[in-house]
Amino acid sequence: MAAPIVESPRSGRISPQYRRSGGSRGNFEMFAWLFMRLSGVVLVVLIFVHLYMNLIDGEGIEGVDFGFVAGKWADPLWQVWDLVMLWLAMLHGTNGVRVIINDYAEKDSTRFWLKNVLYVSTVVIIVLGTLVIFTFDPCPVVNGVPHVADYCPAP
């Protein structure tokens, strides 16, 4: 009795004009794979310290408000901490979605546009998040009137 022949997955499903062109992509995929592993480990540490400091060491979820964030971001350590967490989370997630797009988008043009939308949205979110972290002013002056809260220094 001869063993049955198992055809490769998708062998008859994808039309030849939609098959991906071969070619080496160099070491990019290896570096992307390594980045996912390393950034995942760093993100676990960043996120658990973030959750501990915000929820357990503080007053719990009721204590997280505008004043809490203002006080936290007054310290450059927490600005850099949140910035690294933002950047790593966005790049880690973008790389994961890129892999999913590569796996499931069959047409080259579909892959191209999905990845372009992904990359543009990633850049926009990283830029806006970075601007928010570093330009955040908890004690703004609006129309010459300082909006002073209890956490702002006296004018």
Question: Total helix count?
Answer: 4
Strand content: under 5%
Mean pLDDT: 85
Residue stretches low in confidence (pLDDT < 50, at least 5 long) are: none
Widest β-sheet, arrangement of strands: 1-2
Radius of gyration, rounded?
A: 24 Å
| Series of secondary-structure elements, N-terminal to C-terminal | HHHHEE
| The named CATH superfamily | Fumarate reductase/succinate dehydrogenase, transmembrane subunit
In the residues, how many domains can be counted?
1
Given the C-alpha coordinates, what overall shape results? elongated
Record field, number of beta strands: 2
The CATH architecture category equals Up-down Bundle
Largest sheet, in brief, is: 2 strands, antiparallel
GO cellular component, one term: membrane
InterPro entries: SQR/QFR_C/D (IPR034804), SuccDH_FuR_B_TM-su (IPR000701)
Protein name: Succinate dehydrogenase subunit D
Pfam family, one: Sdh_cyt
What report would you give on this structure?
By secondary structure, the chain is mostly helical. The protein is 60% helix and 3% strand. It is built from 4 helices and 2 strands. The protein has helices at residues 28-56, 66-72, 76-104, 108-135, and strands at residues 141-142, 145-146. A two-stranded antiparallel sheet has the order 1-2. Keywords: Heme, Iron, Membrane, Metal-binding, Transmembrane, Transmembrane helix. The chain crosses the membrane at residues 30-53, 84-105, 117-136. It is found in: Membrane.
